[in-house]
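User: Predict structure, ligand alpha-L-arabinofuranose.
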Amino acid sequence: MPFRKIYKYVASTFLHRANSFRIAGTVGLVFSVSSCINHSAQTATNKAVVEIDDNVAKRYNPAIFGGFIEQFGDQVYGGIYDPGSPLADENGFRKDVVAALKELKIKVVRWPGGCFASGYHWKDGVGKNRKPTPDPVWGVVESNQFGTDEFVKWCRLVGCEPYICTNAGNGTPQEMKEWVEYCNGMSGKYAEKRKENGNEKPYGIKYWSIGNENWGGHEIGASTPEKWGPLVKESADLMLSADSALILAAAATADKKWTLPLLQNAGDRLDLVAVHNYWLGFWQKNENPDYRSCIALSEEPQKFLNGIIHMLDSSGYRGKIRIAFDEWNLRGWHHPGYPRKEATSPLDTAALRLIQKREINNIPSQYTMADALFSASFLNACLRNPEYVEMTNIAPIINTRGPLYVYPEGIVKRTTFHTLSMYANLLQSHIADLTAISDSVCSVPVVDAIATSDSLGKNWSVALINRDPEHFTACTVKIGSRTPDGKFKATVLKGDSPDAYNDKEMPERVKPETVIYPVQKGVVMLPPHSLSIIEFPVKP
Ligand code: AHR
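Assistant: Predicted complex:
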């Protein structure tokens, strides 16, 4: 039976249409302009065809599986760091959190912000006599008990690279340089201070970014395109004078008016452009859109990324500057009335009421299969462009909207945690080109796919998302000229409902299951609202 013809476009006319998407250099045929149709009256199964090119596979950077933690709420204090907890080690690091992040094979973690960074002075957070300081951004008091040395020690425990975001808000380029020297210097005033603080050997922190979101009026140190490039160049030169081996990023956006002047002024100092996006902006007003509304956004990350890629290509920086998507999440964090640029009094009752509203981020029922499948589509978009994307950092990894919810007595692996775990543990090291044709649901392809293989092309792991909230999808998979036939091991994440979520009472309502998928002439039946990673060993 042919595809239910909702609307199908030839790739060429679709290149400039909303739903076109690039797969590792190949434009996939896609579809649809239909609004999201409620399938309940129909029993028809969706159809899709995924054709994998087994000739070319490119290694992707595992730092695509990275994270971000900010000195915000209970991401650090009460999240990764809780010295009074019986679940913490001698350094105050929650051992269960470290174990969970090891499961995710988190390769890089960005810290201390985020907007927080634009008001943070790193010297307040090192040494023996640390004093609490006002956090002008989030309206609380920063104890400074968790600072640079604790962050590096924690990263070593987790097994990830530290990535430091410097203060281009009320900080200075000199302060950035001194931070680099403190961390990486062999000698010098600040290297000596590190040694005095008990860390003789340089940390060798390679990832650093200049500024967070200086393009936004909400940020302390909000800049202009004319001023930002020169400031980045000055900061980069000072930081590189302290360590010439740094991998440097700077705050960028998809807006050419901001990023092209940055590249023109400082592009030769940069290795990365740092970009952020949250597709549901709940910063001031929290909402809880339904599964279909969230899934309808699944192709947005690819479109956002295509814009950045086009900018790098057209400005001549392809291959010279890569992308650090160093804050991403379906949902923006809820913090009504903030961020701010001036400290508020801890006695300001109106401010305290607003800060209390941040608890809304912790409502577990918000984080459903929509988050898990959207996150898989985000990662797919990045994995498909391995020559452009260096890293991504889910914002955050702990608490707030993160995949791991941490509370005093334990942890809850939210649905997206399992997506990240499946990707980090089950995908192979190389990404292959593929083309996908499929029916649609909620104005997006019902199937989103990526194909990975080992370096020899002998073992394949194919990730297939069925976005339909109610119906199976019959997906035909072809690997080169081969059409798999037989029973194949798969890991599937689907939950008992598109709205299923995990919480303290039912921490494993949604979890990956190892199954055997029967595949006949390449056709595999994908369950509704599911992510499947199917292993296709190539017969010798
Ligand atoms: O909502 C959290 C904030 O979102 C981060 O601190 C900032 O980088 C982004 O705007």
